[in-house]
């Protein structure tokens, strides 16, 4: 380790551990987190851990907990602490929901959040779905294999017995679990142990429709469109009842303070409160956690019809029937918080600072505590004041520390983000907007336009690039979803007249299943008849664009302007020299990309996990 102050000062000048962490995002809940001081607002996280323990021991069936705190006080930090602590043990599952795009279909959205959450790795370094699948087989067969051992054995079983292997395992589970009324849910969960089928299985478990050939191969009936919302809550209940035989589900609802409303007039917090009431009444067991502003509780939750019944379930273990309130930071909290962040920072870079709070002064930090600040305001102060005592004359670009830290977060969460086609589309939109009046690959970009479309056509084409006196109009569609969605998107992308295009461009990292006949037909028309293009999405190309997008999203918190962000993009040539940007604008090749992954995310198998000898599956 180094003790040279000048080396540390150089590090401080180029790396800021606080930048980019003022606002907590979902990928930090799931992936690499940030330094945590467990003593800060420990009463809130301990209440959740105590509830999980009571449910696990059979002292309670279901517990409802609501946390209230002012903006920036650390609600999402507490949720991240809960997630990462629960991940260290094997007694619980964590489910997280923070997006409420369509409050009129909240049950379907919740089902998708459950399925997506269970794709996250649990304590055994495999997906939570796979942990449950292994537990089902072990109970049915009275075996004791790990999820990873089943993942290793599945290809051999399927090669020897084809889909009869899954049918046999499903029937074995149902014999010992006669209370399960939907055998297809069990079958889909068991399919998650097959590396080839995991993505299709979790997609079906989300309530979404598979391509007909894939559904038939796996023996999973597609949901009926008219029944999808009605069936969603029933499916969720059955999934959670199955999982609760082996793990205590901890279901968290965050970001409830948005002003979006359903058609019935209820706001997001009210819609979720009613959903939680239904879950509390119907689940076999679990812990339900909500986080919101105090004003949301007072103005929205207490205003609900039958508010008393709802509140009884949202704060079921609180004697005063009030939410758990987070506290503002005091001087000791601030010193502990900053010290922990700096300790992690210096250890990561193998540096020994002159003192644990360097370059800050403890007296100044304690002064901050007199105003009882929020976590967010303390981190913001640290971001702005993280400079050597004698800073160099040359200052880095004001966007750089935020970009660098966002890039670290993107790197840690790239598998998750590669499935987030909304953010990928927004990142491309921002990059192309920074190139207005620039000429790239023979296209002089004049405007980036929103696609005007009916409700049935919305969401399929992200934007239109207009250039060369409107002779070039490229419709860009980022499609990472599978199933029927890819066919529906390609159908719009080849309709040049309707959407005012001269070229359609599909951006996608994965192959399109050869069995998706309609999608493949639309793709052939796009590439061979319409002069369109399929650009292969590579993680290394999108990472910097996602990082600067997250800076853009949080520019108000970071106190930086759009002009500064565009200046940073230009100085660092993030857009103009990005291979993905240039490929979208270049002349189409008419060919499918060669650098694609399989249809769905590849499954990574940790080398450290012990493997079992192959065993025969006797049908």
In short:
This protein has 28 helices and 11 strands. It has helices at 5-14, 26-30, 42-56, 75-87, 106-117, 128-141, 147-161, 164-176, 183-191, 198-205, 212-218, 228-243, 268-282, 294-301, 307-314, 331-348, 362-369, 375-385, 400-412, 414-417, 421-433, 484-493, 496-499, 517-529, 539-553, 555-558, 562-571, 579-585, and strands at residues 62-68, 92-97, 248-253, 286-292, 324-325, 439-440, 443-449, 463-467, 472-478, 503-508, 533-536.
Q: Strand-residue fraction?
A: 5-15%
The shape, in one word, is globular
**Helix-strand category:** alpha/beta
Number of DSSP strand runs? 11
Low-confidence stretches: 600-612
Number of helices: 28
Biggest sheet strand order reads 6-7-8-9-10-11
Helix content: 40-55%
Q: Nearest-angstrom radius of gyration? A: 26 Å
Largest sheet: 6 strands, mixed
**pLDDT averaged over residues:** 90
Distance between the termini: 60 Å
Topology diagram in text:
Elements: H1 5-14, H2 26-30, H3 42-56, E1 62-68, H4 75-87, E2 92-97, H5 106-117, H6 128-141, H7 147-161, H8 164-176, H9 183-191, H10 198-205, H11 212-218, H12 228-243, E3 248-253, H13 268-282, E4 286-292, H14 294-301, H15 307-314, E5 324-325, H16 331-348, H17 362-369, H18 375-385, H19 400-412, H20 414-417, H21 421-433, E6 439-440, E7 443-449, E8 463-467, E9 472-478, H22 484-493, H23 496-499, E10 503-508, H24 517-529, E11 533-536, H25 539-553, H26 555-558, H27 562-571, H28 579-585
Parallel strand pairs: 1-4, 1-5, 2-3, 3-4, 9-10, 10-11
Antiparallel strand pairs: 6-7, 7-8, 8-9
Helix pairs in contact: 3-4, 5-12, 6-7, 6-8, 6-9, 8-9, 9-10, 13-15, 16-17, 19-25, 21-25, 22-24
């Amino acid at each position: 380790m180094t003790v040279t102050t000048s080396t540390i000062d150089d590090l401080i000048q180029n790396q800021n551990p606080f930048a980019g962490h003022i606002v907590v995002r979902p990928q930090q809940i799931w992936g690499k987190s940030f330094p945590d001081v467990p003593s800060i607002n420990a009463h809130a996280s301990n209440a959740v851990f105590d509830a999980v323990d009571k449910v696990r021991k059979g002292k309670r069936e279901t517990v409802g907990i609501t946390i209230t705190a002012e903006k920036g006080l650390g609600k999402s930090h507490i949720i991240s602490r809960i997630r990462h602590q629960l991940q260290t043990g094997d007694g619980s599952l964590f489910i997280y929901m923070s997006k409420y795009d369509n409050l009129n279909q909240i049950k379907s959205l919740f089902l998708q959040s459950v399925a997506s959450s269970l794709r996250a790795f649990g304590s055994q370094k495999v997906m939570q779905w796979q942990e449950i699948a292994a537990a089902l087989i072990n109970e049915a067969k009275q075996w004791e294999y790990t999820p990873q051992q089943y993942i290793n054995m599945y290809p051999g079983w399927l090669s020897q017995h084809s889909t009869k292997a899954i049918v046999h395992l499903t029937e074995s589970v149902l014999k010992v679990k006669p209370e399960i009324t939907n055998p297809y849910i069990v079958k889909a969960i068991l399919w998650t142990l097959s590396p080839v089928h995991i993505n299709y299985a979790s997609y079906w478990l989300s309530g979404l429709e598979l391509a007909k050939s894939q559904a038939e191969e796996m023996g999973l009936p597609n949901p009926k469109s008219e029944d999808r919302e009605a069936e969603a809550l029933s499916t969720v209940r059955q999934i959670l009842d199955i999982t609760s035989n082996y793990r205590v589900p901890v279901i968290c609802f965050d970001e409830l303070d948005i002003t979006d409303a359903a058609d019935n007039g209820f706001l997001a917090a009210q819609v979720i409160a009613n959903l939680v009431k239904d879950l509390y009444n119907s689940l076999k067991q679990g812990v339900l956690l909500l986080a919101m502003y105090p004003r949301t509780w007072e103005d929205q939750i207490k205003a609900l019809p039958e508010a008393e019944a709802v509140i009884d379930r949202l704060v079921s273990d609180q004697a005063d029937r009030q939410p758990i309130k987070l506290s503002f930071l005091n001087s000791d909290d601030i010193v502990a918080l900053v010290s922990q962040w700096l300790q992690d920072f210096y250890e990561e870079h193998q540096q020994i600072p002159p003192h644990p709070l360097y370059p800050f002064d403890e007296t100044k930090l304690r002064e901050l505590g007199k105003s009882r600040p929020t976590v967010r305001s303390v981190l913001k102060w640290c971001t702005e004041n993280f400079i050597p005592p004698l800073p160099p004359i040359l200052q880095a670009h004001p966007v750089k520390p935020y970009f660098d830290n966002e890039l670290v977060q993107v790197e840690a969460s790239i598998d998750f983000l590669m499935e987030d086609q909304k953010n990928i589309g927004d990142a491309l939109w921002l990059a192309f907007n920074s190139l207005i009046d620039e000429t790239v690959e023979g296209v002089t970009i004049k405007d980036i336009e929103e696609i005007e479309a009916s409700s049935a056509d919305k969401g399929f084409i992200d934007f239109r690039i207009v250039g060369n006196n409107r002779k070039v109009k490229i419709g860009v569609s980022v499609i990472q979803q599978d199933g029927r969605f890819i066919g529906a998107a390609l159908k719009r992308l080849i309709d040049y007249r309707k959407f005012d295009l001269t070229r359609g461009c599909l951006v996608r990292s994965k192959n399109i299943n050869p069995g998706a006949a309609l999608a493949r037909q639309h793709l052939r028309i796009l590439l061979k008849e319409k002069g369109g293009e399929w650009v292969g999405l590579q993680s290394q190309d999108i990472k910097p664009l996602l990082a600067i997008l997250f800076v853009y999203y949080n520019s108000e918190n970071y106190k930086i302007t759009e002009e500064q962000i565009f200046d940073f993009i230009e100085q660092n040539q993030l857009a103009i020299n990005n291979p993905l940007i240039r490929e979208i604008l270049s002349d189409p090749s008419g060919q499918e990309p060669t650098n694609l992954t399989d249809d769905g995310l590849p499954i990574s198998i940790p080398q450290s996990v012990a493997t079992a000898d192959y065993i025969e599956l006797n049908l």
